[in-house]
Design goal:
The protein is an all-beta fold and 388 residues long. It is 1% helix and 44% strand. Strands 23-24-25-26-30-29-28-27 form an eight-stranded mixed beta sheet, with no helix packed on it. A six-stranded antiparallel beta sheet has the order 1-2-3-4-5-6, with no helix packed on it. Strands 7-8-9-10 form a four-stranded antiparallel beta sheet, with no helix packed on it.
């Protein structure tokens, strides 16, 4: 697949995003966080770079003669998965190369008939995403364990749990649908999450919650992966947007979302055990409104009636008329917001409470904090340029 200049391929696990292919030396082709967001890696036209997330630190650079379009780390392990990219790929686009950074060489490879769209790693699995299939391998010996047929998946959407518990894999299915497979219980769930195609998805660390957004980019839904129950529905805005990233914090207390609107939204998540039960999934109800009449990033549209209640997401000012007015009047809006000048970004939470980092396709890194009681605008605590 060719990525037009300026486009990000929205991988479903917020941590994998291809950047625009360019002939410029050391241009970013890819940026993505590792499984716990303690590091992030960048693929460039001349190799790849790895950074420490917090505190920010340029950890190391590996220089090649060609470009790297995917760099998938496995926590802080010395083994990474690489796929070629750019106008002069270091490796074929249909191969996944396992790179041992201690030995500074490739120690294994997986070849396919079509282009690799994404790679996911955990300590016992290698997952390779193609347009119509997903291959699951044992990490130790690279033996094929499973093959999943999918709908056309040019974005390479796929989520893999990374915790010590159940091994959960989530992939898009038929239009607006999601398929969740447990490799521990062997249970498979398939359900409709949105009216239109899923454009972004993310699992929390233990794989018990799945966040999804459609290509409309207005609503974000959080599901229980064991039952497919809708746990919570939050609203990013009213106008269409391209969602580039969804990210849970480590304790699943918050969810961050980045889009082409240049605002990162942070939502307070409900306790799974205390969900009120009034979330009824109706994909057909998603945002049937005339577009362009509201500024989804305006203060009034975010704050609802009285602004954010302490420790909670603000609700729409007409929530008391729920059931009589269109759904967006009673929506649950973001608890905190962070605005950047870059339009294409991914985000993650650090190991410090109430702190996020944002990395952009323009090669900039931002660090910001938010008030856990009041929410509102985030405060920038640092910024860096990733490339010279």
């Amino acid at each position: 697949e060719t990525f037009p200049k300026g486009q990000i391929d929205r991988q479903k696990c917020i941590r994998l995003h291809k950047m625009d292919s360019s002939s410029k030396s050391d241009e970013l082709l890819f940026v993505g966080f590792n499984q716990d967001a303690t590091c992030f890696a960048c693929g460039t036209n001349t190799g790849f770079k790895v950074f420490n997330t917090h505190p920010y630190r340029d950890t190391f650079t590996r220089t090649f003669t060609g470009g790297i379009g995917i760099v998938e780390m496995m926590f802080r392990c010395n083994v990474l998965a690489l796929v070629g990219g750019g106008n002069n790929p270091q490796y074929p686009l249909n191969k996944v190369m396992l790179w041992d950074d201690h030995q500074r060489r490739c120690i294994g490879e997986l070849s396919f008939r079509t282009e690799v769209k994404a790679v996911k790693l955990r300590k016992d699995k290698v997952v390779v995403v193609l347009d119509l299939k997903i291959y699951v391998y044992n990490f130790s010996d690279l033996k094929l364990q499973d093959i999943l047929d999918t709908c056309s998946n040019p974005r390479g959407l796929c989520c893999l749990s990374t915790g010590k518990g159940d091994i959960i894999l989530a992939v898009p299915s038929a239009e607006g649908g999601v398929k969740i497979k447990s490799y521990t219980s062997k249970k498979v769930l398939e359900f409709k999450a949105h009216e239109s195609p899923v454009a972004c998805m993310s699992l929390n660390a233990d794989g018990k919650r799945l966040a999804t957004a459609s290509d409309k980019g207005t609503l974000i839904r959080i599901f229980d992966t064991e039952t497919s129950d809708l746990l919570q529905e939050v609203r990013r805005g009213l106008d269409r947007a391209e969602i580039y990233c969804l990210a849970f914090d480590r304790n699943s207390r918050y969810l961050a979302c980045s889009s082409d609107k240049s605002t990162i939204h942070i939502f307070k998540l409900e306790d799974k055990n205390t969900v009120a039960g009034d979330h009824i999934l109706n994909p057909e109800s998603e945002d049937r409104m005339s577009e362009g009449h509201y500024d989804e990033e305006s203060k009034d549209s975010r704050d609802g009636e009285n602004g954010p209640k302490e420790g909670k997401n603000p609700k729409g000012m007409f929530r008391f008329m729920k059931g009589f007015l269109p759904k967006y009047f009673s929506s649950e809006w973001s608890f905190a917001q962070y605005r950047v000048n870059d339009s294409k970004t991914i985000c993650a939470f650090t190991d410090k409470d109430c702190q996020i980092v944002v990395v952009s396709s323009e090669g900039r890194y931002y660090e910001a904090s938010f008030d856990p009681k009041e929410g509102g605008e985030c405060t920038t605590s640092g910024s860096q340029n990733l490339l010279p």
